[in-house]
Design goal:
about 140 residues, alpha+beta, Thiol Ester Dehydrase, Chain A, six-stranded antiparallel beta sheet, about 20% helix, 4-hydroxybenzoyl-CoA_TE
Length: about 140
């Protein structure tokens, strides 16, 4: 797998399930967030960004539910950076069931940078852009 893709796994537990015995749709948001944290840990120093007074803030999340995940399924969350714009960036994520590779869900997460001192969003400046641009991977790269 491409080094620009972060992988994390989660085993479906009883507390993830709803009354229909499959993963509650809201739980996928947590699975995806776990994938994003894994991505940031792997690709760049998020703590250094925070120390500079910047925070990554969510501005949009679009999720497609493809099929149900059930108790004891092991899920793999793949996360990559798929686009960088002037003021925002997009991460593409895919959740697959490990045993058969079936896609369970996929999502696009748009974020901006927030200046924590002023409380205002800001452009992605050149220094950070130079770090992020080489990490961009086409959306369809998360097929595996």
């Amino acid at each position: 797998m491409d080094h620009r893709v972060a992988r994390s796994t989660v085993r479906v537990r009883g507390f993830h399930l709803d009354g229909y015995a499959h993963v509650n749709n809201a739980r996928y948001l947590e699975f995806l967030e776990e994938g994003r944290w894994a991505y940031f840990e792997q690709q760049f120093d998020l703590a250094a960004l925070f120390n500079e007074g910047l925070a990554v803030v969510a501005v949009n999340l679009n999720i497609n539910y493809r099929r149900a995940a059930v108790m004891n399924d092991e899920l793999e969350i793949l996360t990559s950076l798929s686009a960088i714009n002037h003021r925002s960036a997009v991460m593409h994520q895919a959740i697959h069931r490990v045993v058969d590779g079936k896609r369970i869900a996929d999502a696009d997460f748009t974020f901006m940078l927030l200046d924590t001192r002023s409380g205002r969003t800001m452009a992605i400046e050149q220094k950070l852009r130079e770090i992020l641009v080489p990490l961009v991977l086409a959306r369809n790269a998360l097929q595996g």
